[in-house]
């Protein structure tokens, strides 16, 4: 285990390019810990929306309680959040390449903490949507910058397990968000918040987000040869985010004013996505980076990961409600059962990375692991859907067991894919590469909550939504099989 020395002229991915630049000088395992904490609170912040809406539906409270189609409206709110999250993916990577990836991580955590607090302060539907859209826009820049830091500052032999260990914060955050939210709402009730008790988890997670941001800032500041300058990247992010937020909120307001069906509003989010992808691709072509960022294998991985985001946010957003309705259990019991899926990532993420690194050291590819993980998750998702079709109530033990087993393979898949993708581009382009990757993949997160909610309201069952998620993942199995992997230290596979 060695510290990272600072060269005179750095190509470090955590600093702006050009001239003498500082590099991160901390130990890579310490870096993993802080990035894990960032993932944890970021995912707790975004996961809280699903359980909060489930509580509103169950208690007929807040701005969801009186809705004619509460599941559809709740899913639409989730989709609005991820529309914002999606639209800053590429911009976040580009800003990180220019201003520094450390700076963008701290800005993202500060932004998310402040806007999560604002989400709790708002009282009406429109105000809540605006706050969640803005939260998503800020959180969207975390992903591409985090991935680049891990790859740049982790020894090659431990790169994939590093990606997995850090990403396990996602599962911990999902678990915390799912399990803690009902208890925090109850705590809000004990404090006399009544029908506004749903605000309490947003207040708690917002404060913790700010504390994590302060700790991360102090850590990075002490391990570089210059202070972190947060102002310039933050202002550029604001300049980028304001038009995006206006477009998203305008879409929601128009739908509310003219009484559009919620599914049509979701289609509008898809149009924004296509417009953004078009602008990004045009910019890449104009700057002469097509060979690095728009290759065949990059597109195969980007498109296949749509299935990951679809399944991630189908189960993360709706699993509590699915278990509660299917097993007729309390919200707390349903949250504990649903947490088996999220909690499986605490084991699945690092184990998937560890196995992939062993294969790379042996000169073998990681692609077969990706295919196997995606295929097994598909089969188990189908089994989960079948368990919802019976006349009787499925047992919580059965639902929890299926969610846990599918979660192991599903979460192991993700660092494997990230590692394969990271080897497809040079270091100076990785921020942009991961930004493009998650921009494309996030269409799954945008579509999944609202499509699943529409299917539930139309059929009266969650099974069609589960089978849809399984079908999308089955397509990704084929796409992963077509990827030509570059194995570090060997010829391209």
Written account of the structure:
- Residues 31-488 form the Major facilitator superfamily (MFS) profile domain.
- The protein is an all-alpha fold and 493 residues long.
- The protein has a single domain (28-482), classed as Growth Hormone, Chain: A.
- The chain is 77% helix and 0% strand.
- It has helices at 28-47, 49-59, 70-87, 89-99, 101-121, 125-139, 142-153, 159-190, 199-221, 231-258, 262-286, 290-293, 296-327, 331-343, 345-361, 367-387, 396-422, 430-441, 443-459, 463-482.
- The protein is globular and about 55 Å long.
- Residues 1-23 have low confidence and may be disordered.
Brief overview, please?
Residues 31-488 form the Major facilitator superfamily (MFS) profile domain. This protein is mainly α.
Features:
membrane, mainly alpha, 493 residues, transmembrane helix, disordered N terminus, single chain, 77% helix, Growth Hormone, Chain: A
């Amino acid at each position: 285990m060695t510290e990272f020395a600072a060269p005179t002229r750095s190509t470090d991915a955590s600093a702006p390019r050009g001239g003498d630049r500082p590099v991160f000088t901390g130990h890579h395992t310490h870096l993993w810990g802080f990035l894990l904490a960032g993932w944890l609170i970021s995912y707790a912040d975004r996961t809280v929306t699903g359980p909060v809406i489930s509580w509103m539906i169950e208690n007929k409270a807040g701005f969801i309680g009186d809705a004619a189609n509460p599941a559809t409206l709740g899913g639409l709110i989730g989709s609005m959040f991820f529309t914002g999250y999606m639209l800053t993916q590429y911009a976040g990577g580009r800003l990180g390449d220019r201003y520094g990836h450390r700076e963008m991580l701290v800005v993202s955590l500060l932004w998310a903490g402040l806007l999560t607090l604002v989400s709790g302060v708002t009282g009406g539907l429109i105000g809540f949507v605006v706050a969640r859209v803005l939260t998503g826009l800020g959180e969207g820049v975390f992903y591409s910058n985090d991935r680049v830091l891990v790859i740049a500052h982790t020894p090659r032999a431990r790169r994939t397990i590093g990606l997995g260990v850090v990403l396990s914060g996602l599962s911990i955050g999902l678990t915390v968000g799912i399990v803690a939210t009902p208890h925090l709402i109850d705590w809000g009730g004990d404090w006399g918040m009544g029908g506004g008790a749903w605000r309490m988890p947003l207040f708690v997670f917002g404060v913790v987000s700010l504390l994590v941001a302060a700790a991360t800032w102090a850590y990075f500041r002490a391990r570089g040869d210059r202070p972190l300058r947060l102002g310039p990247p933050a202002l550029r992010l604001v300049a980028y985010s304001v038009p995006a937020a206006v477009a998203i909120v305008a879409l929601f307001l128009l739908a509310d004013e003219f009484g559009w069906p919620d599914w049509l509003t979701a289609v509008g989010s898809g149009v924004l996505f296509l417009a953004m992808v078009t602008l990004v691709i045009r910019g890449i072509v104009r700057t002469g980076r097509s060979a690095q960022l728009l290759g065949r294998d990059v597109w195969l991985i980007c498109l296949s990961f749509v299935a990951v985001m679809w399944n991630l946010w189908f189960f993360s957003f709706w699993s509590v409600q699915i278990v509660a309705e299917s097993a007729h259990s309390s919200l707390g019991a349903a949250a504990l059962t649903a947490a088996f899926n999220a909690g499986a990532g605490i084991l699945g993420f690092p184990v998937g990375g560890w196995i992939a690194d062993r294969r790379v050291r042996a000169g073998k590819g990681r692609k077969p692991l990706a295919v196997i993980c995606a295929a097994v998750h598909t089969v188990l998702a189908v089994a989960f859907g079948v368990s919802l079709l019976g006349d009787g109530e499925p047992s919580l033990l059965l639902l929890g067991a299926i969610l846990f087993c599918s979660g192991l393979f599903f979460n192991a898949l993700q660092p494997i894919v990230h590692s394969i993708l990271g080897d497809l581009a040079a270091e100076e382009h990785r921020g942009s590469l991961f930004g493009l990757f998650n921009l494309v993949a996030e269409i799954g997160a945008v579509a999944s909550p609202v499509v699943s909610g529409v299917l539930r309201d139309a059929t009266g069952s969650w099974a069609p939504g589960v089978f849809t998620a399984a079908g999308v993942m089955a397509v990704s199995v084929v796409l992963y099989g077509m990827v030509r992997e570059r194995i570090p230290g060997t010829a391209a596979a």
